[in-house]
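Researcher: Let's do a round of design. I'm pasting the structure tokens now; please hold your answer until I've finished.
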């Protein structure tokens, strides 16, 4: 065991029996396979405490040099949500009107998505995730960050799982380009870059999931053991 001034013993690791490990892995699969991207959200409110807790969970993700190159802007203000919807829909209209290109638009057909983004106003929370190319571990550090995309991707995955575990519906939304989010969120600077917008809240009554989204690749397709 490494036990020096700057290392602590690993005291919070919990070991399970092999049997229990498999049961736990299966239980987690059962939990996570019920997470679906939804586009029909209820306008029921969700407390800030729940969102804050999920963001704190996301921020436990591993990151390059532990620089934690992310910032989360959690939005419930109806005026801000409305601005985001307005800007996103303008971009989506041109995307669906042809800017996306034939192949991309064809790929989206089975999902039935379109330029209407009413959920951006209706859902109680939008979480804008920003990646940071510079920072460091201390609050006012100005060092290079490493593996920024990978780190923020993992943190965003943690966030989605945490929101699902809490009992909320989620959607990843990536209007292209996303620069309008920087301005609206007050993060128009040289460091922050909008990474993704997460929509979260209760699913609306009668919410549905496209059959296409339920089709998961087989283990043979996705995995090789050597
Ligand atoms: N951003 C658009 C288009 C879109 C793109 C992909 I890739 C998706 O998986 C789903 C939608 C939209 O939100 O409609």
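Researcher: That's everything. Go ahead.
Model: Designed sequence:
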């Amino acid at each position: 065991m490494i036990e020096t001034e700057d290392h602590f013993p690993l005291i919070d690791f919990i070991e399970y029996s092999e049997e229990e490990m498999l049961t736990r892995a299966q239980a987690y699969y059962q939990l996570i396979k019920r997470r679906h991207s939804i586009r029909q959200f209820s306008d029921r409110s969700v407390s800030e405490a729940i969102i804050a807790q999920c963001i704190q969970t996301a921020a436990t993700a591993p990151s390059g040099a532990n620089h934690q190159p992310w910032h989360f802007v959690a939005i419930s203000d109806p005026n801000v949500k409305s601005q985001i919807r307005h800007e996103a829909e303008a971009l989506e209209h041109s995307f669906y009107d042809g800017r996306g290109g034939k192949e991309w638009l064809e790929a989206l057909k089975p999902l039935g998505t379109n330029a209407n983004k009413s959920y951006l106003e209706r859902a109680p929370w939008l979480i804008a995730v920003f990646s940071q190319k510079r920072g460091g571990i201390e609050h006012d550090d100005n060092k290079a960050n490493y593996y920024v995309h990978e780190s923020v991707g993992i943190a965003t995955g943690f966030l989605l799982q945490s929101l699902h575990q809490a009992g909320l519906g989620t959607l990843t939304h990536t209007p292209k380009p996303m620069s309008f989010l920087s301005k609206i969120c007050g993060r128009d600077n040289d460091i922050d870059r909008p990474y993704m917008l997460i929509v979260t809240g209760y699913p609306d009554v009668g919410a549905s999931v496209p059959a296409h989204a339920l089709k998961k690749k087989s283990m043979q397709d996705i995995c090789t053991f050597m």
